[in-house]
């Protein structure tokens, strides 16, 4: 209807007046506040944060080069954080925890932007922490005991983990998880992770090609082998046992 | 027992420097020389001694699609087929808007080349993880589709006309994370429209 009643016109002009009055009233308080951080360079507000790497970007070389990290952390991980925050903007999910967001959006075709970006932001955080300079090899202490008890020892773990990581077709992840008190190895496609299941993640290896292509090209097996021998952060895995 | 090997690695239909600078000889040395070759070798190993050995790739892809116990055969055979088709979908000095029969079909199906370009770019950009974007013919009309990992249009009853590989190994050495730049350069410089037109049948 194009006809406006007197009441409509009155309501509209009152609304306009109220907005104007509010704007005028709030000006002095804005002006009195200290200078805000420059808005154009601030990251989009949202629940996801690009945390600093837990080591220098040269610390994982030569297994993972600084060049790889500049793209993997600086471009891919950053894009998941930025796109995840964009996708969550204005959604009630933005107030939820990451596992809650993933459970609420898993398998829903209209929610893939949230699910994929939030999942990938979390997976990359966990991947960076799963590594350290001069890590790898067989663990001692509690993790060493658990590998023996649950998987038949480090060599058996290494063989099964390698098979999961090299056998994951396409893009994805290989995980060491604790399933109700027993260690297991699983692999997941694309952005999927164990947070939507009863499996507690302990360690993860990224086998998306972008994780290793600049350093190893098609030789995924060499990347997996070097990662196990030189980078695994067993202290992180043990801390995740709880 | 038959000793027929079903799959073979074809020679590239151009020099390995012909697609540069969009796709470098370095990328092709791995993409064709290692990835494609590995799919051929692994596919032949998996097919040896099965009742699928000696059948056409199209038949094998359709017969194994969606069967969990045949995933190894499906992945390797479909990837051989996809890569064969991808190499033929490109040529040096290609790309841009097509003319002739395929140009008319692009116009009538999408409303013009720019609309097709937008749709193919969207499909190639939103195929999350590894996969392919396709121009296909279905029921006399052209369509853009996308498929994950090794999947292709054959089991869906569509006729593939063109494909672009968006596995990261297709562009990572040349473009790193910038998939959009690879897709745009591929459309502008490499598309083999003569191949697409021939596939119309």
Short account of what is shown:
The complex is a heterodimer of chains A (242) and B (201). Chain A is mainly α and 242 residues long.
Classify the fold: give the CATH topology of the largest domain in chain B: minor pseudopilin epsh fold
Provide the β-strand percentage band of chain A.
5-15%
What CATH architecture of the domain at 141-241 in chain A do you see? 3-Layer(bab) Sandwich
Strand arrangement within the widest β-sheet of chain B reads: 2-1-3
Globular, elongated, flat, extended or rod-shaped: what is the shape of chain A?
globular
Low-confidence stretches of chain B: none
Q: State the helix count of chain A.
A: 9
Description:
The complex is a heterodimer of chains A (242) and B (201). Chain A is mostly helical and 242 residues long. Among the domains of chain A are: 66-129, Fe,Mn superoxide dismutase (SOD) domain (Helix Hairpins, Orthogonal Bundle); 141-241, minor pseudopilin epsh fold (3-Layer(bab) Sandwich). Chain A is 51% helix and 10% strand. Chain A has 9 helices and 3 strands, in the order H-H-H-H-H-H-E-E-E-H-H-H. In chain A, strand 1 (172-179) and strand 2 (182-189) form a beta hairpin. The longest helix of chain A is centred in the N-terminal third of the chain and has 27 residues, at 6-32. The N and C termini of chain A lie far apart (64 Å). Residues 1-44 of chain A have low confidence and may be disordered. Chain B has 201 residues and is mostly helical. Chain B has 2 domains: 25-88, Fe,Mn superoxide dismutase (SOD) domain (Helix Hairpins); 100-199, minor pseudopilin epsh fold. Chain B is 48% helix and 11% strand. Chain B has 8 helices and 3 strands, in the order αααααβββααα. Chain B has a 3-stranded antiparallel sheet with strand order 2-1-3. The longest helix of chain B has 23 residues, at 25-47. The mean pLDDT of chain B is 96.
């Amino acid at each position: 209807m194009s006809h406006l009643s007197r009441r409509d016109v009155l309501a509209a002009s009152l609304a306009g007046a109220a907005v104007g009055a509010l704007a005028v009233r709030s000006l002095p308080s804005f002006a009195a506040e200290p200078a805000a951080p420059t808005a154009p360079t601030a990251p989009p507000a949202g629940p996801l944060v690009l945390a600093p790497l837990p080591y220098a970007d040269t610390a994982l070389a030569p297994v993972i080069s600084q060049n790889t990290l500049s793209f993997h952390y600086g471009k891919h991980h950053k894009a998941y954080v930025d796109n995840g925050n964009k996708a969550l903007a204005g959604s009630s999910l933005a107030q939820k925890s990451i596992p809650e967001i993933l459970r609420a959006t898993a398998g829903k075709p209209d929610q893939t932007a949230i699910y994929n970006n939030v999942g990938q932001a979390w997976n990359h955080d966990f991947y960076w922490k799963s590594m350290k300079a001069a890590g790898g090899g067989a663990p001692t202490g509690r993790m060493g005991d658990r590998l023996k008890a649950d998987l038949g020892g480090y060599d058996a773990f290494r063989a099964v983990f390698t098979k999961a990581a090299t056998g994951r077709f396409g893009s994805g992840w290989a995980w060491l998880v604790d399933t109700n008190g027993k260690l297991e190895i699983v692999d997941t496609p694309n952005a999927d992770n164990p947070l939507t299941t009863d499996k507690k993640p302990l360690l993860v290896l990224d086998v998306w090609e972008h994780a290793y292509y600049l350093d190893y090209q098609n030789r995924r097996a060499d990347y997996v082998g070097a990662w196990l021998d030189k980078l695994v952060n067993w202290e992180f895995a043990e801390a995740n046992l709880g | 027992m038959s000793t027929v090997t079903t799959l073979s690695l074809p020679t590239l239909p151009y020099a390995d420097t012909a697609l540069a600078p969009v796709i470098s000889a370095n990328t092709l040395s791995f993409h064709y020389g290692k990835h494609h070759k590995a799919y051929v070798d692994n596919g032949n190993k998996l097919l040896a001694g099965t009742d699928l050995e000696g059948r056409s790739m199209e038949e094998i892809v359709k017969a194994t699609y969606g069967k969990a116990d045949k995933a190894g055969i499906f992945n390797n055979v479909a990837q051989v087929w996809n890569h064969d088709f991808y190499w033929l979908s490109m040529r040096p000095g290609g790309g841009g808007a097509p003319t002739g029969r395929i140009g008319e079909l692009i116009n009538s199906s999408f409303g013009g080349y720019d609309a097709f370009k937008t749709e193919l770019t969207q499909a190639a950009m939103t195929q999350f993880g590894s996969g392919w974007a396709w121009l296909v013919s279905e029921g006399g009309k052209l369509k853009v589709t996308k498929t994950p990992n090794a999947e292709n249009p054959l089991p869906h009853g569509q006729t593939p006309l063109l494909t672009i590989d968006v596995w990261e190994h297709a562009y990572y050495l040349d473009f790193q994370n910038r998939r959009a730049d690879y897709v745009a350069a591929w459309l502008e410089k490499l598309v083999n429209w003569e191949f697409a037109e021939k596939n119309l049948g």
